[in-house]
Amino acid sequence: MTTATLSWGDRPIDLETVDGRTFLRIGQNLRVDVTDASLDQLDQLADVAADLAGHQRDRYRAADVADQVAAEDGHRLVGVPIQRGPVAA
Length: 89
What we know:
three-stranded antiparallel beta sheet, 3 strands
């Protein structure tokens, strides 16, 4: 089994119909054919999306709590973005 990783950020998620086939379009580069998907598969997709949204809400809340605690203690947290790249030898 091959796993592909795709990051789409806040790009749109839409349904698209082309030549009688229905696709779930996620961002610009991913299109999933759902024409023959069963109701069970579509329900599973909805459940996974709901779980993912809940997980992300929990992450946002945890970050907010850390910021609030730091502010109450008179500290300010500053994040530094890190981009991994090749390491010089």
